[in-house]
Amino acid sequence: MNPPSEKTSKSSSRTARWLLLVATLLVTACYLVPRAHSGWIPHDEGLLAHMAERVLEGEVPHRDFDDMYSGGLTYLHAGAMKTLGRKLSSMRWVLLVASLVGVACWYGIASHFAPPWAAMLASLLCLSWSTPNYFASLPSWYILVLASLTTWLLLQYHRHRQSRWLLAAGFCCGLSLMIKIVGLYMVAAALLSLLAVSFQPDPDEKPKQVTGMERLVSVGPASLLCLLVILLVRSHLGLGTLLLFVLPSVALAVVLVQIQSRGRTRLGQAIRPGLVFSVGLLAPLLAWTGCYLAAGALGDLVHGIFVLPRLRLDSVTSSLPPPWVLLWGLPPIVLLGLGLRKATPRHARRLELLAALSALPLLLTCLGALGNTGADARPLADKLLDSIYQPLFLACYFLPLLVVVSGILVVKYRPETRADDAKLFIVLGPVALMTLIQYPYSTGIYFCYYAPLLILGVLAVVRSQAAGWQRSWIGIGLLALLFAVSMLNFSSPRSLGVRSQSIARQGPLSARADLAVNLQDLEDYGSLIELLERETSPGETIYAAPDCPEVYFLANRRNPTRTMYDIFDTRNDRERLILEMLEKQEVRAVVVNMRAEFSRPLSGGFLAELERIFPQRTRIGIVHRGPVSPPTARFRVYWR
Question: Is the pTM of this model over 0.90?
Fold first, then answer.
């Protein structure tokens, strides 16, 4: 019997890859479809829906209202609502399609470093740490998907060296900038990756000494990158900020310089790919700015993209976890170190013992937390799960720096495979730079906006190491997958990274809010919508503040201002101007949110004026701010 030919073997391998990809996408679709109608954070869903509806009414983002992002996603949501109906789930079907694209990208990236079965597991792990944790069509999910797609396209360019891959990569980066300005982070990663690819030597070319002038080709852009990152985070500079945002960029710069020292420096070959990438990048951006120029709103676009985000960086912040949580991450850190070189049989047992002992801080923390629940009457299993939740979630929080540093050592210790250095750099670029998407609001869900890129970075480094301890990493990956599915995916996104909090949901809330929501929201918003529908007419102007754009969409009422979140309304004497606007436009109903998440509450003097102007008033919902503070109303409604 003749052995199978090489061509037949390659065809079978290609078929297996496609079959596993199809299976992965089917699992993804089945897992995500039920989430299209379940769960919400009211102000997030309301913001997205209200902006999309204003576009459907003929308004232009930034010119007629303050779009919180670049504006491209608002048009996408408006298109979805025009096609599928003016309801919240319409936006979520767009996110479902984007999630499938993201999973396909993660599978493709992983396939460059691992066999198809491992790529399938890696992509499902990426999925479990991403959109299922908060299935709202927010821009950061699309930034993640486009960054992943750009990374895959750059890997394809590295393999095939065809310009079409660069054009597509640039186009994806342009689309990401149209969605949110943080797409700049991926643009920087892509340009540095093209520089690393240009340093790759020919297979038969011997390395030569890099001169001082040639060194500027890598040191110049790398130094500029580090400087820009420091300038970005300077107002919140601290040890945690250095570990999570600054030092990964510094380590990435070292990798770039190291790749150049092992390869060649031909600036001409770096310029042409950069120009092709830039053509793809500028194509959507020029069309976008051209539309605003034609509408006479180019200045409004610039203000909305560059000024409002600065206000958000200064006003909406969240503290980082303390750096000592690195102790909880010792197992992956130790494994990254042990994988650099193959151990002799004599030392293998000692290294295995070291790897096992690295889990002691994590274990002792969990046992300590379990011991502090003596008065808790819940079952032991529930208390055990609570004790391990936060340590497991935060174990990899500061891992990006260690992954990129491991990349430095991989490049250093494998002189015989210089051609793969640029491929590794393409994956490490997003690991180092896209972590900035968590700045300055570093809550648990913002880690999930980035986590898939970190997972793929770990995979690329481990598969590039001499002795990757791959069985141990498979175990860690399966544990992370089990943890995400059992304790993250069905929990409240507000408590993500702090504790697992399951919420009973019922619904839909209304025809427009066709989602199952928590029981308190179902009662509060149901009563609020009923009142507004009784006292005002569809399409009538009302005023709702602060930070409750969802009221306008749910009640199908118009917003008389350009403001979504009141923290961005920086006008002097703002409350007096609002009162004048209420009288001038003869607004008949006002909703005051007493539980604003970002903006300051309205002043007592403003509320007193509302009571004078509007003879009818009521309170809806109850808010318990703490065990000592008395309960207050969630909404105050005034009408006439």
Answer: yes
